[in-house]
């Protein structure tokens, strides 16, 4: 099959205006994309060749691949399911709301009336500062309007709507009008750029296990079980799973939710950060009376 050549998108520069005969980046990409790719797979293959030739760096290629993949996804593919939504009730007291906001560490909360199908608005955690500044508190007056989107909406369309409306959260509804879950702009962006770290995440050189206050430890869910055993003097088997996150999932028989806690062999594992696909960070503490942790060095 004959392929049409790409329309050149770099004009030839006059030799008097250029200090070098070396082709520009756009000129090299133009040459690489001739003949033009006929489908997405061919385009990706050419972009990977560009990466191998040094025309694109690894991060740029990853973002392009993520954007292309996202364009074929729907809201239902990334939403937080209804059962895992952290919500406030319109009748909650300021004390209940404050404690819940501190425990879950979210910046936005759906507020419901009778049940999760009755979302009356969105509360921004920062609006609670008005109460502590002595300006009074009325939950109904603080609520922002909730945005509702169908679970079939394409992600690229949703991202454009988030940008235009300056909303960061949408409530996902099914074909019958019931609430199916929620989605945030962070969920969408992570499909393009990868996981976005927050205050519970570790920097590259921190290691997998870090001491926290009160004798507790923050632990990456990807920590190998052998390393975990070495620090906590435990004997968890790695025959069926390799990581601490895998251990929790196997014991529960499902993916644990954010802030869910499980006790295994005298250790309390609380989920600090998780989404509907994976666990990221755990807080590990010993039950009262349990043997102490190994005082040896924390593995890198």
Helix and strand topology:
Layout (H helix, E strand, L loop, with lengths): L24 H8 L7 H13 L5 H13 L9 E2 L6 E2 L4 H11 L3 E5 L6 E6 L4 H4 L6 H4 L5 E3 L4 H11 L3 E5 L5 E6 H9 L15 E3 L5 E4 L4 H8 L11 H9 L8 E4 L2 E8 L4 E8 L14
Parallel strand pairs: 2-3, 5-6
Antiparallel strand pairs: 1-7, 3-4, 6-7, 8-9, 9-12, 10-11, 11-12
Helix pairs in contact: 2-3, 3-8
What's a concise summary of this model?
The chain has 300 residues and is of the alpha+beta class.
Could you explain how this protein is built, in words?
With 300 residues, this protein is an alpha+beta fold. It has helices spanning 25-32, 40-52, 58-70, 94-104, 129-132, 139-142, 155-165, 185-193, 225-232, 244-252, and strands at residues 80-81, 88-89, 108-112, 119-124, 148-150, 169-173, 179-184, 209-211, 217-220, 261-264, 267-274, 279-286. The strands form three sheets. It has a five-stranded antiparallel sheet with strand order 8-9-12-11-10, with helices on one face. Strand 6 (169-173) and strand 7 (179-184) form a beta hairpin. Helix 2 (40-52) runs antiparallel to helix 3 (58-70) and helix 3 crosses helix 8. It starts with 24 loop residues before the first helix and ends in a 14-residue tail after the last strand.
């Amino acid at each position: 099959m004959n392929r049409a050549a790409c329309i050149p998108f770099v004009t030839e520069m006059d030799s008097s205006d250029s200090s070098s005969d070396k082709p520009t980046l756009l000129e090299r990409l133009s040459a690489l994309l001739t003949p033009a790719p006929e489908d997405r797979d061919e385009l990706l293959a050419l972009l990977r060749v560009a990466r191998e030739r040094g025309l694109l760096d690894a991060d740029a290629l990853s973002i392009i691949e993520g954007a292309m993949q996202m364009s074929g996804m729907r809201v239902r593919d990334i939403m937080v399911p209804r059962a895992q939504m952290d919500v406030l009730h319109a009748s909650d007291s300021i004390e209940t709301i404050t404690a819940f906001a501190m425990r879950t560490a979210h910046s936005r909360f759906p507020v419901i009336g009778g049940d999760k199908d009755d979302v009356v608005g969105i509360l921004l955690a920062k609006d609670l500062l008005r109460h502590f500044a002595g300006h009074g508190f009325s939950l109904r007056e603080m609520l922002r309007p909730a945005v509702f989107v169908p679970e079939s909406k394409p992600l690229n369309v949703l991202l454009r709507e988030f940008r235009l409306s300056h909303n960061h959260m949408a409530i996902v509804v099914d074909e019958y009008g019931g609430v199916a879950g929620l989605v945030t702009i962070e969920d969408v962006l992570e499909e393009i750029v990868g996981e976005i770290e927050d205050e519970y995440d570790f920097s590259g050189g921190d290691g997998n296990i870090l001491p926290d206050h009160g004798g507790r430890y923050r632990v990456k869910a990807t920590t190998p079980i052998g390393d975990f055993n070495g620090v906590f003097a435990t004997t968890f088997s790695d025959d069926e799973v390799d990581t601490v996150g895998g251990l929790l999932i196997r014991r529960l028989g499902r993916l644990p939710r954010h802030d869910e806690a499980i006790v295994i062999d005298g250790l309390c594992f609380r989920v600090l950060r998780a989404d509907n696909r994976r666990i990221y960070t755990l807080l590990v503490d010993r039950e009262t009376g349990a043997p102490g942790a190994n005082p040896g060095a924390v593995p890198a």
